[in-house]
Amino acid sequence: MNDSVLTLREQRAATDLRALRIATYNIHGTVGTDGQASPERIAGVIRELDADIVALQEVPLGGSFAPNALPVLREMTGMDAIAGPTLDTPERRYGNAILSRLPICATRSLDLSFGTREARGALDVDVETDGTGSPLRVVATHLGLSSRERRAQIRALIAAFDTPRMPVLLMGDLNEWFVWGHALRMLVTHFRAAPAPRTFPSRLPVFALDRIWMHPADRLIDVTVHRSTRARVASDHLPLVARIAREHHY
User: Fold this and answer.
1) What is the number of structural domains in the chain?
2) Which of 89, 99, 87, 88 minimizes the C-alpha distance to 56?
3) Which regions span the lipid bilayer (predicted)?
4) The CATH number of the domain where 25 resides is what?
5) In the Cβ-directed half-sphere of 72, how many Cα atoms lie within 13 Å?
6) Higher-confidence residue: 150 or 45?
7) Has residue 236 been placed in a domain?
8) Is residue 175 part of a domain?
9) N or C: which end of the chain has fewer CB within 10 A?
């Protein structure tokens, strides 16, 4: 029995060595369920995740109305930080961001705004994962509140996936309240359905608003929710964490 348990532990350790930890987290402007704004508390949750790449949504990025949270997150986590503002005015910069322990070799922004609704977008980066020049494409987004808006945004995202040989991670707050809403059915045309644990609201999760999708799908090992005491208070969403294999032949 002891040999079997040891073997299982060794297998898990070997899997962890060959896997990358990926996370997505809607930080709600750093405002917690206690009504207090604290980028330091958000940074504490991110440190708990021990992730190689973290996609963030609802990030304050500066302006006269709100301080920039990224310097605090960068300093406290030791990760590189890339901003992807969807709202960019002198009064307020706000939107997506990506934190990474790994080198980011290219950065793009996708405009997903729809009509007169709140500006939306995706932060699209290439990340070097193994030093061999084979990057991982990471697309971090926060979709709109109406189903018609989300359908248009998903069409734009799928059209942007023009690098079929490059592995792609799509993650973020998809704002899809129904298990198989139109946006999710459209995504299955490009991504295989992935586990979707409930992340919202953080104190007692009922809805799976946050998602991590991988193409090719067989590189996705597992998806879990981070439910620490700090995470339940730091934001109204819980972080979603996945492990992905570094190589397609894993």
Assistant:
1) 1
2) 99
3) none
4) 3.60.10.10
5) 18
6) 45
7) yes
8) yes
9) N
With a cut of 50, say whether residue 173 has pLDDT above it: yes
Within a domain: 241 = yes
Distance of alpha carbon 73 from alpha carbon 197, whole angstroms: 25
Q: What's the CA gap between 134 and 193, in Å, rounded?
A: 25
Q: What is the mean pLDDT of the chain?
A: 87
How big is the CA angle at 75 (ends 72 and 77), to the nearest 5 degrees?
A: 100
Where are the strands (E) in 113-161, listed by range? Answer: 121-128, 135-142
Q: Is residue 153 part of a domain?
A: yes
Model confidence, pTM:
0.88
Percent over 90 (pLDDT), the chain:
60
Q: If you average pLDDT over residues 159-174, what whole number do you get? A: 83
What whole-number percentage of the chain has pLDDT above 70? Answer: 86
Give me the pLDDT at residue 249, please: 45
List the domain range (segments joined by +) for residue 166: 20-245
User: CA angle at residue 156 from 153 to 162, to 5 degrees?
Assistant: 145
CA–CA gap between residue 28 and residue 232 (Å, rounded): 12
